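DATA CLASS: polypeptide
GOAL: derive structure tokens

***
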Amino acid sequence: MAKYSVEKKEAAMKKLLPPINMSVAAVAAEEGVSEQTLYNWRDKARQSGVPVPGKKPTTLEWSAETKFAVVVETATFSASQLSQYCREKGLYPEQVSEWRDSCLSGFQTTKEQERAAKKQAKADRSEIKFLKKELRYKESALAETAALLVLRKKLRALYGEDDEES
């Protein structure tokens, strides 16, 4: 079994991770390291909490553990540090903040979650009520317009006028 220097391992891992995201086969050919060794390094990095995309190409498909690792890693970052981190990892700051919110919502108590669900349900009911009222108004306006058109047509027929004159 060949021993690789720390520098060589870091260089290979850097190529596997965002923003470069080279394939394992390409890195193996370029660095002269076997593909299985690279897979092992990537798996060890993932287990240690490093956000590694792995077999899933987009950040939307990353595992919950990987997303949580990113949230923990960026918890103390300022906006500029977060932007720099996101550029290096191929992420968007909005994704990280969304993941952070998801993590925090998981720590809410059941009562808080129920309260938030009730508040959302109340807002939904109010919006549905408003939309139904608006729909009834528009339906009545449409019926009135249709009735006026029918009456106009009957009036013209009664007086014997052509429809094209108007």
